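Query form — protein histidine kinase

QUESTION: What is the three-dimensional structure of this chain?
INPUT:
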Amino acid sequence: MSDFAGMEELLQDFLLESTELLSDVDNKLVELEKRPNDRALLNDIFRGFHTIKGGAGFLNVAPMVTICHRTENLFDKLRNSELGLSSELMDVILDATGAVRDMFTVLSQGLPPPNPDPAMLAALDAALAGNLAAVKAPAQAAPVAPATPAPAPAANSNEPNWAALHQAVTGTEQPAAASPAASAPLDMVAAATMVTESAPAEFIPAPIVPAAVVPVAPKPQNKPAPSTGGPISGQENTIRIDTVRLDQVLNLSGEIGLTKNRLTTLRTEILQGNMETNTLRSLDEAISQLDLLVSDLQNAVMKTRMQPIGRLFQKYPRLARDLARQLGKEVELVITGEETELDKTMIEDLNDPLVHLVRNAVDHGVESAEERIAMGKKPQSLIELTAEQVGDHIVIEITDDGKGMNPEVLRRKAIAKGLIDAETANALDEKQCLQLIFLPGFSTKDQISSVSGRGVGMDVVRTNIQKLNGRIDINSIQGEGTRISISLPLTLAILPVLVVRACNQPFAVPLAMVREIIPIDTTAIQEVSGRPTIVVRDEILPLKTLSGLLNWQPTQKPNFGVLMQSAEKSFILAVDSFVGRDDVVIKPLQNIRPKGVAGATLSGDGSVVLVLDMEDLLAGQMDSSANGSIMLRNADNFSY
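ANSWER: The structure tokens for histidine kinase are given below.
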């Protein structure tokens, strides 16, 4: 079994390196389509693809070698000017790289990849022969007769033992096939079917069809879907760290050890009765030094989790290009700020929202070339994806120069779909109307297509961003374009909070939602539609008491208000008093998940402070049966 463990390690190394190489190749192919005469760019593409082919050959992955070899021949003819690059030819090349990416997904599960799609191979051969008519419609190729199953490898073959490798990677055995002769093709079909059904369509430009036509094995019910961020088993549990950062952590750990020794010595002196001024001063200095070192160590450890967001952005040029081709639009995606660093776990969770926003910009945001020319614009639309660090937050923006959004149209659509009533809609200003696109079921499309129209995407985008303690804002000018801004904390490991008190209990609210703190004057409270409100700088804001959200009986009249921003809503949270600002590490509550509580932390005096999930709390008042659960007076139920 150790041999297969070694094979698994080789496979993981190959997938890690090759996935990054393939993403780089895809991006450079999109650039090559814009600059077809750039020989240096073509040579870079050739080298990257050749490296992938070499690794596949070393692992004896024959189907991948077949695709890579024919695509390399195509690159060679382009390099020697024997072929001219066209959009149709680029479609075939990108289909081939997509098939290789799908094979990565299958390999990550310890399964043999299926034979290449015969229609795709026929398109590659036609492209090599210069037959562009066949290249334009590769999917219409005649059906291929069933191929004879390949014989089992000989005992001295270099072919990996896929059954054992699959068990080593996943911890489960491959399902037994109906007959030994058909077992390998059957596993290939099952793997190909699983990849095609579970992965998002935008990452599978060409479906993998096995050469042998055999019954498809049923899809396992308990197998997780492969990640679109990179089909590498266990990749989410690994991270690449610069050795300089690790050296910094090691040095700080050593200094903390020395300070600990100094504190131990001082403690011994004090226990022996040495309470001289110099001893107490030395104790104070040692504690101050330890505080600084722990803060530096905390920052250094956080930096080890930080990864450049460019690793996420590199997927989107091809995504935008393929969708634009599908919709018949001319789109250029410009990316800036790839070096901006963000917590790795947040990068992974950002993938789906950003995929949807980029697709939305191409589908909804920008016009066709004919529409743009009629409006006096350039035929090619521009979409910009940027990232930058602003203070202790990362701001990601997706901007297009398309038609923009009409607030009145959005208002009418929301009313027509029954998402809000006419009275509520008429009370919304233009900025609030733009926020209507986040409502579940809202869509500006009258017909559902494979790309959009179901009114699900933007609701999911906002939900995912809020789970990351972030905010999403929209600015749009009709006829000029739309800008969607996402603001995220640098890391989720440490959460800045404002600690408040209500009903003699401390609570922590995310500082990212806090705009300002104001005193509450009871004479300034007015009722609008039967609800208490306060006017702050000509803005009418609803007043919500924290005790009311918790469904508790107030012990006193609230003295202060926290002006908070929750998604598109602003409101004032009335509290009894404040404890102060703090940076906390959220820990889960064991066997308890009250509504509106994200977790808990410990204060400096050792008491438990509940961290509130304001979005969950605002969705509905806390059930009174949970009152006893959340009044924690000790740390018995606290996992620290």
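ADDITIONAL NOTE: The first strand starts at residue 306 and ends at 308.
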